[in-house]
Design a protein that fits this description.
198 residues; mainly beta; 5-stranded mixed beta barrel; 14 strands; 38% strand; globular
Amino acid sequence: MRRVAVVTVAALTVFAACGNDPAAETAEPTTSTTLPIIASTTEGGSPETTVPLQTTSAPPAVTPRADLEANDAVDGPVMRHPKHSDSNEGLTAEVRGVLELDGSCLYVALDDIGERYPIVWPAGTRWDQEKQAVVSPMGESMAIGDEVYGGGGYFYVADVEQIAGPQASSLAADCADNTYGEIAVVNNWETAIGPAQP
């Protein structure tokens, strides 16, 4: 029989300060998120393995929002990450369903559970008004009524401002209408979502 214990490794906040450099005195703190680790032990109590675990309890690491232009995160009904990410790390929840447009709200709808979610797309995603379609950073067109499939996580409206800024957060608040008020947030890389494969 094995016992499983959860250990949390907390990162420290580091402040830059170098002599009399005024820029260093006003520098933003660098922070790191908490990393949950699962440590498995054998019946005798000795560690067997340590495995990193991903979680959706906090929004993904993002750039501070103060320097963003309003149009960086919203294009028509498309909410998107305002800047490209250099990271290839992401969340592992499925973001899938049929694209649905209701007024100014774009949803991924899951008919099998009767829910729909506003969606935050990867940076570079745009809205094609003429074709009524989402165009991915890779140039793939996904029209209203098309099924899409990708990876990401589900967050509350309050998290969207940190992820994509105030204009996206306002649109998310207007559009959230599922049971838990959640927003689907796609991982921020070019190939994180696309047309579903048959």
